[in-house]
């Protein structure tokens, strides 16, 4: 990164404009998010349930794939490493990713794996907003095949050589494991690695940062927090224990909390409306923006502020969605932070 870019590292607007072309690797679980929309027609005679008249079905990249889509939408040269099945969901995911400009050369396609698919049924009356009424998950078995894991690790090693930042996106389906993250550990001059692990954060200690939500920190701590001070104390203890330089805790309508080594806790108020339309995939957007900002030379507080703006934007969109540079710049300008 040039001297001018480093000098601008504290300027959020300049950083957003520097996103273009940054190389970011995503390792993790590729998930197909499917949305089935229908109009409520009547109550069934067979059971006290609604009958929906099908309107449309849309399948979009979720999980680690959503993180990669957000990186691409923000202008990064995103590469993704993971596994999909030889099924329609897997083929659809790769097509959507490649169509967005994501490098999928590190994605393994195998008949030994079923692509995890999360089907959300959205219902509503004529001329009304469709609301999610139920979700049906078709889950793959956790990846334990030693040969496949070794191939994933090899793909990570190759892609990490050119990366300026990396994201570990773990939804507990086994693609992110000690074997597959090993090539990113202790590499000379390694770029920042940021972790988002739904249930196994302790297994990914020693990287640069992580982005758990408040519930996940409480789960690790084994107790509920009554106030922000308790969260900050426990979060700082966890950050130190796991050896992260920074821990960015997302708190929904309460914003975010950044705990950085050697610094006071930084509380960030939520940006925009506190009434989220849809939080599906918001964590993927947050970590994508956070990692991309770090790849562009941001310090942790500035990267956290940009991620906070991205999260505030994406929860106002329906379904699994992306944030774009012009939206980030508009949000920054509205808050007087350009």
Describe the 3D structure.
- The chain is α/β, with parallel strands linked by helices.
- The chain has one domain (9-31, 61-116, 141-334): UDP-N-acetylmuramoyl-L-alanine:D-glutamate ligase, CATH 3.40.1190.
- 34% of the residues lie in helices and 28% in strands.
- The strands form 2 sheets. A 9-stranded mixed β-sheet has the order 5-4-1-8-9-10-11-12-13, sandwiched between helices. A 4-stranded mixed β-sheet has the order 3-2-6-7.
- Helix 9 (282-295) packs antiparallel against helix 10 and helix 10 (300-314) packs across helix 11 (325-334).
- The model is unreliable at 1-7 (pLDDT under 50).
Strand content: 25-35%
Total of helices: 11
What is the distance, rounded to the nearest whole angstrom, between the alpha carbons of the first and last residues?
Answer: 21 Å
User: Which structural class fits the helix and strand makeup?
Assistant: alpha/beta
Keywords:
338 residues; alpha/beta; UDP-N-acetylmuramoyl-L-alanine:D-glutamate ligase; 4-stranded mixed sheet; 13 strands; disordered N terminus
Briefly say what this structure is.
With 338 residues, the protein is an alpha/beta fold. The protein has helices at residues 3-7, 12-17, 64-73, 88-99, 146-160, 178-181, 214-221, 228-242, 282-295, 300-314, 325-334, and strands at residues 23-28, 30-43, 50-63, 77-85, 103-110, 116-124, 131-138, 165-170, 193-197, 209-210, 246-250, 256-260, 266-268. Strand 4 (77-85), helix 4 (88-99) and strand 5 (103-110) form a beta-alpha-beta unit.
């Amino acid at each position: 990164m040039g001297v001018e870019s480093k000098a601008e590292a504290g300027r959020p607007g300049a950083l957003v404009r520097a996103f273009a072309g940054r190389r970011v690797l995503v390792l993790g679980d590729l998930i197909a998010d499917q949305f089935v929309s229908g109009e409520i027609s009547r109550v069934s005679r067979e059971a006290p349930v609604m009958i929906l008249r099908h309107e449309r079905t849309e399948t979009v990249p979720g999980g680690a794939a959503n993180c990669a889509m957000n990186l691409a939408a923000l202008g990064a040269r995103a590469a993704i490493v993971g596994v999909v099945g030889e099924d329609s969901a897997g083929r659809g995911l790769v097509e959507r990713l490649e169509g967005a400009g994501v490098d999928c050369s590190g994605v393994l396609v195998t008949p030994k794996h079923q692509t995890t698919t999360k089907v959300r049924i959205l219902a509503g009356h004529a001329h009304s907003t469709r609301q999610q009424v139920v979700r049906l998950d078709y889950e793959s078995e956790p990846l334990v095949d030693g040969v496949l894991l070794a191939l994933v690790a090899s793909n990570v090693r190759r892609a990490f050589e050119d990366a300026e930042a990396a994201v570990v996106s773990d939804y507990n389906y086994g693609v992110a494991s000690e074997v597959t993250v090993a090539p990113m550990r202790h590499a000379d001059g390694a770029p920042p690695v940021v972790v988002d692990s739904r249930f196994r954060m302790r297994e990914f200690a020693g990287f640069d940062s992580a982005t758990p939500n408040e519930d996940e920190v409480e789960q690790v701590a084994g107790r509920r927090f009554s106030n922000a001070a308790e969260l900050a104390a426990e979060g700082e203890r966890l950050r130190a224990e796991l050896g992260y330089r920074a821990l960015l805790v997302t708190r929904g309508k309460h914003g975010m909390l950044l705990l950085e080594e050697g610094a006071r806790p930084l509380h960030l108020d939520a940006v925009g409306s506190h009434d989220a339309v849809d939080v599906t995939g918001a964590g993927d957007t947050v970590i994508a923006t956070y990692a991309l900002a770090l790849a562009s030379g941001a310090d942790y507080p500035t990267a956290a502020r940009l991620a906070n703006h991205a999260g505030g934007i994406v929860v106002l969109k329906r379904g699994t969605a992306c944030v774009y540079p012009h939206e980030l710049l508009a949000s920054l300008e509205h808050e007087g932070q350009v």
